[in-house]
Design a protein that fits this description.
Elements (H helix, E strand, L loop, with lengths): L1 E2 L3 H12 L6 E2 L11 E3 L5 E3 L4 E2 L4 H9 L4 E3 L5 E6 L2 E3 L4 H14 L13 H5 L3 H6 L5 H13 L11 H11 L2 H5 L8 E3 L4 H9 L6 E2 L4 E6 L4 E5 L3 E4 L2 E3 L3 H4 L3 E3 L4 H8 L7 E7 L3 H4 L2 E7 L6 E4 L8 E7 L1 H8 L3 H16 L8 E5 L20 H4 L10 E3 L12 H18 L3
Parallel strand pairs: 1-2, 1-14, 2-10, 7-17, 11-15, 14-21
Antiparallel strand pairs: 3-4, 5-9, 6-9, 7-8, 11-12, 12-13, 16-19, 16-20, 17-18, 18-19
Helix pairs in contact: 1-16, 2-16, 3-6, 3-7
Bound molecules: flavin-adenine dinucleotide.
Length: 436
């Protein structure tokens, strides 16, 4: 039995079916895809409200894209990016930013992603936040502020004081370095999906035999012992020899377990809250920024939008600028009305790309924090001081209960690819346990 039909759950189900096991996938929402959600405006303009990119070293998700014959396209980059740092506008970050990022990369080399808690300085790094480590470096306040925003925000979707240095380094190590993580060309933001990223999950679901997937069935309780489990949903009960809980830890923690989970497992779930990014879209008749020689990509050490990108799909009726809000800015913005949020975001787009940005045809946002079955994005991370103690429990099975979700991945943690990997790993555990 698999709980959750995101990439982790669907990936697990594929593997189990291939091994000849019988599977049922129970999904809370009336749709598959979890943290992907592709929406079309009435004129056909496509928006990816959740995850959207895949990168060249994300082989598992790429395999699926190729398997289903899904077309992809490079992230549009017609012109120069804007780097707004220390009140200056540059076309690329200053040298000091690169050297601070290199230092982070070097530290990440000391991490084995399968066992970050074994790093020589793991305990000290776990007890230090990324913010406090940055503050102790010799870089200027401007460089530190910029790196804090693009790393903690752009990668972990939080504020730099919310993640430990160890968790930040683990995240970098799990992706193979800063460049694969942050880059467009050659990095995790290189490629987009024609038809939107949710279509990959929909293809995976379509391939499941009839009756395997049960939508709109939130699992509320898992009773388990060494022989099997009984799952209760809002409408049915099911029995299973093994269960893969393929939902973000913060939601796995809201399921009732009987007997209660062991302290370390429960503690790990409790200590892995979801990030708090906001992704916003402004839709224009045409990509006016390209006429000004701008790519639409920007990174800023100030203002509400840490990052923006030209999100216009090929042959789109209209152009799309997408912005990302992280950390304290995201918290503050959430306290405002939609009208105020729209004004604040558009004013910032206007500062970055000119007055035409002030009046889009449409302004669309989607708050994953307010989604009952997600509760935040991009993904969850162990809070400072908890990776060494609770990290191992995040994916250690409890009797017949196994754990998946991108948060449990050791490669591309936080990404589609990590989610698929986690589902496969959990399926492999089940296969081994059942002797298949
Ligand atoms: C705005 C945003 C931008 C992102 N950008 C990217 C990107 O560009 N590239 C990338 O690779 N990743 C990106 N990500 C992250 C990526 O979307 C996730 O890593 C990935 O989709 C997680 O898959 P998952 O299966 O682990 O979890 P989820 O997708 O969260 O799937 C879990 C599923 O479980 C269901 N569920 C929850 N609780 C229950 C329950 N009790 N019973 C039954 N079902 C339940 C949920 O409804 C959901 O369908 C982004 C995410 C967001 C939100």
């Amino acid at each position: 039995m698999v709980v959750g039909a995101g990439f982790a759950g669907l990936g697990a189900a594929r593997e189990l079916l291939e091994a000849g096991l019988s599977v049922q996938v129970l999904e809370a929402r009336p749709r598959v895809g979890g943290r992907t959600l592709t929406r079309y405006l009435p004129d056909g303009t496509q928006l990816d409200l959740g995850g959207q990119w895949i990168g060249p070293t994300q082989h598992r998700i790429r395999e699926l894209v190729d398997h289903f014959g899904i077309s992809t396209y490079p992230t549009p980059a017609h012109g120069d990016p804007v780097v707004d740092i220390g009140g200056e506008r540059l076309a690329s970050p200053p040298r000091e930013v690169d050297s601070l990022l290199e230092e982070i990369d070097l530290l990440a080399l000391q991490i084995t992603p399968e066992r970050p808690w074994d790093a020589p300085e793991a305990r000290a790094w776990d007890q230090q936040t990324f913010a406090s480590w940055l503050a102790g470096t010799e870089y200027s306040e401007t460089v530190i502020r910029y790196v804090a925003r693009v790393v903690s925000g752009g990668l972990l979707a939080g504020a730099p004081a919310e993640a430990s240095l160890l968790e930040t380094l683990f995240y970098v190590a799990s992706a193979g370095g800063i460049q694969p993580l942050m880059g467009y060309e050659g990095g995790a933001q290189e490629t987009r999906i024609v038809g939107g990223a949710q279509s990959i999950a929909e293809h995976m679901a379509d391939e499941l035999p009839p009756g395997v997937l049960r939508l709109a069935e939130p699992v509320t309780a898992v009773e388990y012992d060494s022989a099997g489990a009984r799952l209760t949903t809002t409408t049915h009960t099911y029995t299973a020899s093994r269960v893969i809980v393929a939902v973000p830890p913060t939601l796995a923690a809201r399921i009732r377990y009987d007997p209660p989970l062991p302290a370390l497992s429960d503690g790990a779930l409790q200590r892995t809250p979801a990030g708090g990014a906001l992704k916003v879209h402004a839709v224009y008749p045409a990509p006016f920024w390209r006429d000004r020689g701008l790519s639409g990509m920007s990174t800023s050490d100030s203002g509400v939008l840490t990052e923006t990108v030209d999100n216009t799909p090929p042959n789109s009726p209209r152009a799309v600028l997408t912005g990302f809000v992280y950390g304290d800015e995201a918290v503050l913005l959430r306290g405002r009305s939609l009208e105020e949020r729209r004004r604040i975001v558009l004013e910032r787009l206007g500062e970055l790309f000119g007055d035409q940005a002030l009046s889009p045809d449409d302004y669309v946002e989607f708050d994953w924090m307010a989604e009952e079955w997600t509760r935040g994005c991009f993904s969850g991370h162990l809070v400072p001081g908890s990776t060494v103690t609770f990290g191992p429990a995040l994916r250690t099975p409890v009797e017949v209960v196994h754990w998946a979700s991108t948060e449990t991945a050791t490669e591309w943690n936080g990404y589609f690819d990590g989610a698929v990997a986690s589902g496969r790993r959990a399926a492999e555990e089940v296969r081994a346990a059942l002797g298949r």
